[in-house]
Amino acid sequence: MRQSLIALILLFVVAPPAMAMSGLEQIWLHAPTQYKVSEKTSLIGDISPRFGTDNGGVDQCIVRSGIQRKLTRNLTGTLGFDSVDNYQPFRNHENRIWQQLQAQTKKRSYTLSARLRLEERHFTGKEGDSIRARLMLKSSQRIASTKFSVVYSDELFLTLNTIPDGPVQGVDRNRIFAGLGYSINRNQTLECGYRVEYINKTDVDDEKRRQLVVQLASLI
User: Which residues constitute the domain of residue 138?
Assistant: First the structure.
């Protein structure tokens, strides 16, 4: 909980000057919490609001929950549920059930992780469920002997089926992130950086969004 409050405070510190950055469209906050049930099992949850810089309002809010299990020293599996409210360009709701595998390796000051997530997405007012796969690769390099690190990630989203008046099969979007991390403790890092999201549109021109991201990241 203390780490989540730190991330929230940092958001309000960086948000005002970020609003004035040319080309920046959104500010994202991701502050997860974790409760350890046993040595290998944890409950996870977070609220992730995403703010538009044009009017300062909330574009989207995700409430996430799940149960995480450590399978091996470097591999975890997670079952989760997301409640997603979108406010722009109009109000709509989505529920997601998801399954995830995450692998991570650490060598001295360098950490590399890979995450594969499969989502079953149900949209209010639409028939059928959209199935989406997400693959993220992430690296972190500590700067000398400091608590700071340089962080990069790339996440590809693939929609696996088409539903009426909903997502279409194919590439959905791609997110590229670069930023700085600050080690809060042995297992958690506070990250702040810039992300570009490319969104594949089927009926209009493709969209590119520029986002300031403040998030907590945990070692597995």
Answer: 2-218
What digits encode the pLDDT tens for the residues 129-159?
Answer: 999 999 999 999 999 999 999 999 999 999 9
CATH number of the domain to which 94 belongs: 2.40.160.40
Residue type, 59: D
Taking the C-alpha atoms of residue 188 and residue 104, their distance in angstroms, rounded to an integer, is: 14
**What is the domain count for the chain?**
1
CA distance 23 to 10: 21
Here the tokens at position 145 are: 């002997």
Q: What is the DSSP string of 65-129?
A: EEEEEEEETTEEEEEEEEEEEE-SSS-EEEEEEEEEEEEEEEETTEEEEEEEEEEEEEETT-SS-
pLDDT one-digit tens code per residue, 57-109:
889 999 999 999 999 999 999 999 999 999 877 789 999 999 999 999 999 89
Length of the chain: 220
Residues 170, 200: contact at Cβ < 8 Å?
A: yes
pTM score of the predicted model:
0.88
